[in-house]
Design goal:
By secondary structure, the protein is an alpha/beta fold. It contains eleven helices and 17 strands. The model has no long low-confidence stretch (mean pLDDT 92).
Amino acid sequence: MKKTKIVATIGPITANPKILKKMYKAGMSVARLNGSHNSLDWHSKTIRLIKKTIPDCPILLDIPGKKIRTTRLNIEPNFKKNDILIITTKSGFKGENKISITNNQLHRFLKKGNTVYADDGTLKFLVVKVINQDIYLKAENDGQLKSSKGINIPYVNIGSKLITQRDKKVIQFAKEEEVDFIGVSFVESAKHINLIRQLIDNDIPKIVAKVENQKGLDNLNNIINATDVIMIDRGDLSTETNIETLGINQKNIINASNKLSKPVIVATEMLDNMINNPHPTKAEVLDISNSILDGATATMLSGETAVGKYPIESIKVMSKISDVMIKDQYARNKDEISITSETMG
């Protein structure tokens, strides 16, 4: 029986030998690091810690890519519906009056009436005006905009380069640190993968292509053929397309990956309730179960193990669900073979 693998994100609370050993024992198959958070120095130390503590555990490093994020903030502003926030493409604003973002050209592509999402679509804003490099946003719900959170502008072409200078720097870093996988955000074509592969110029690290928008869906088969692994990033995918079609898109990506014999990871909010609570919701159990039934090679934990209160418990829950589903599938397959044999007998 081939067990579904578990990718677990390492963050500040889990980057220590004792917890890493417990995570691995609980069922972590791959240790993931998010290059959009923390410094390269932190990542370097953490990679070495993982290799020393659990040397048999592969490491996945996500490179920032063209995904737009808020920068590190001194003040993470709370706001109410209809409040005005200012995000800016100027650097150096830490949340007091304005919030700097990682893209220095976004103001050129936005106009009044555009919709902006943040934090995997949990925050929604309407652009009310753009003055120079400042983008004025009207909040459509209460919330808090935190550091390093993703910014999505669906259906607006923001003209970013396929590979940024920062990407090149992080890819070189990944090669020097000898990580096993590189995660590439917002992959929209085989060309994007091939450019990354040229920069790697080696068999390792392998490439994990993240399908996160409509262009990625439109070019899905070409991307799957070009990459080593597929990841379904459901946070960005749901905001860049339509949340109502997320289930259909996930099934289609898994099916296409299985047909082309490429591993596929399902990610984002699989056990989100366990960031702050010791138990999953029934909907989360069903989500993981259905992802496995559909043919996911791996399921992934993000905030649950990076900043959550119950990282070990989250891995154990996911592992137990995987065990149950795989055993059930195995039993069903044995029954089908037995019935077929009797019928043909």
